[in-house]
Here is the input.
Amino acid sequence: MEAASASETSNQSPVTIQQRIYDPHGKYLQILTQRHCCGLCGLAARRMRRACVNQSPNNRINGVHGLYLQRLKLSLDDPDSFMSNWNERDDTPCNWNGIKCDSTSHSVNSVDLSKARVAGQFPTVLCRLRNLTFLSLSNNSINSSLPSNISACQSLVHLDLSQNLLIGELPVNLADLHNLKYLDLSGNNFTGDVPASFRRHVQRSTSEHKPTVNR
Here is the structure.
C-alpha cells in the first residue's frame, strides 16, 4: 500500500465524494455519497474513481441489469425459491435461473419465470431492460391489473401472461408495443373489450409479422 507523505496527511479537511451512476443509455439512477475524514482517503478515492472509469461497458450493463432484477426479486413472493441463485454479489445476472443474455452485448434479453409459482403485481421494473425481447410469467399468481406503463417495454417481441390472476380492463396503450409478435393473456379475469387501438395495431401489423394473440 502506498504511504502518504506528511504534507498529504496534515491539515486536511474532510472530503465528500459524490459518484453519479447512470444506466447504459445515460439515464441517471442515483448519487452515491461517501464522507472521507482521513489523510489516506484522498488516495483511495482517486483509485476508486479510476476503477469506475476503467470499468468495461459490459460490466456496467450487467451491474445495472442485475440491479433491476434484484428489484424484481424483492417485488414478488417466491415460495419455491426459484430466484434463490439471484445473488447481488455476482458479476453478471446471465447465469441466474430464468435469465438469458445477448451473446454479444451481454445485456438481458429474456426473462422466463413461467411455472415458478411467484406472486405479485406485474413487475414494471422489467421495462427498464431496454433489450428485453422475451418475457414469460405464465402459470403464476401475477395479480391486480396490467399497468398502463407496460408500454415502456418497447423491445418486447414475446409476452406471455397466461394462467395468472390478472383482472380489469386491458390498457389502451398495449398497442404501443410495436415489436410484439406473440401475446398470450388467456386464463386471466380481464373484463371489457379489447381496446380498439390494439385491434387496429393487429390489423396493421398482420401483413408485416402476423402477430399471435391469445385471450
User: Anything to note?
Assistant: The radius of gyration is 22 Å. The chain is about 25% helix and 25% strand. Helices lie at 6-9, 41-54, 57-75, 196-209.
